[in-house]
Amino acid sequence: MFGVGPQEMVIIGLIFLVIFGPSSLPKMAKDVGRFVSEARRAIDDFKEEITAAGDDEDEEDKK
């Protein structure tokens, strides 16, 4: 994932722990997870719209 190995991930996690404190990390992780989920859903919807638009153009060309 972005060329970051497990050791780097642990270091990044420790830095976040020191900066933000242990009480806010679960909420931050939940918010990041929600953002990633919504971003994936938006990308999938966009891909479906592009595919559908291409299929519509193909059908018009056949007529």
Order of helices and strands: HH
CA distance, first residue to last residue: 46 Å
- Contiguous low-pLDDT stretches (5 residues minimum) are none
Mean of residue pLDDT values:
86
What's the arrangement of secondary structure elements?
Elements: H1 6-20, H2 25-62
Describe the fold and architecture:
The protein has 63 residues and is mainly alpha-helical. The protein has a domain at 22-62. The protein has two helices and no strands. The protein has helices at 6-20, 25-62. It is elongated, with a radius of gyration of 20 Å. The mean pLDDT is 86.
In a few lines, what is going on in this structure?
With 63 residues, the chain is mostly helical.
Task: List its traits.
single chain; 63 residues; mainly alpha
